[in-house]
Structure prediction request, 275 residues.
Amino acid sequence: MGRFYVRSTKGNMVPLSTVTQPRAARGPDVVTRYNLHRSVEVNGAAAPGFSSGDAIITMEQVAGTLPAGYGYEWTGLSYQEVTTRGRAGLILLLAIVFVFLVLAAQYESWTVPFAVILVVPIGIFGAFLAQWIRGLDNNVYAQIGLVMLVGLSAKNAILIVEYAKVRYDRGLRLNEAAAEGSRIRLRPILMTSFAFIFGVLPLMIATGAGSAARHALGTSVFGGMIAATVLGVLFIPVLFVVSEAITERRKRAEAARATVGVGRGASDRLGGSIK
Prediction:
């Protein structure tokens, strides 16, 4: 500081050290601002077995203990996750409804598609069970796998229901049609399902960059397809028999009401002619 000179009030040049006292101080090299407010950027990641949603909830709880005058905002992927929170279930529900409407139009029935749709929860249960066994969280990659399971689980059910429906419409008894459909379609169901299961197996054991995303997606689809295949071939014929029995019972009730209505009309006309 003594090498720097400044002009005094009398016009003389004096060393800067005569009017100042230097001392060491620490400060940030860069001051971060967010919306014109001084801020601190915090980056982190959830521990294994916990989702990013769990980490966000924990951070919100910690931020709630800050003194007055302090606040927080989410940015980047965390901001997108917070703004779309709770919509994964809606997307899954819309996928199931869409499949149901397509099947209702294909079979021209509101009850037969239930034999297909009710297999989907079996696949979803298998996906959650596999994730729980491996200690994984239900992140966005696992949720993508759940949406895939809607179509994959329905595919197996369609193979059985389609054949059983055709055989039943041709005059075969309901139980026999369901049993024959399950027996005939068992081989293609096992071949296609296990080919897909072994295809996603490398995702479950992946290593390196991005392996966590592959583990989540592969485990979800792997567990869901095993449950939908093993349990589905047992429950699909039962669901088909129940749905068709409900349909036939409703048709017989409607036919009985129509017969009673026609009989009453004929008796009224007969009574009028006797008079």
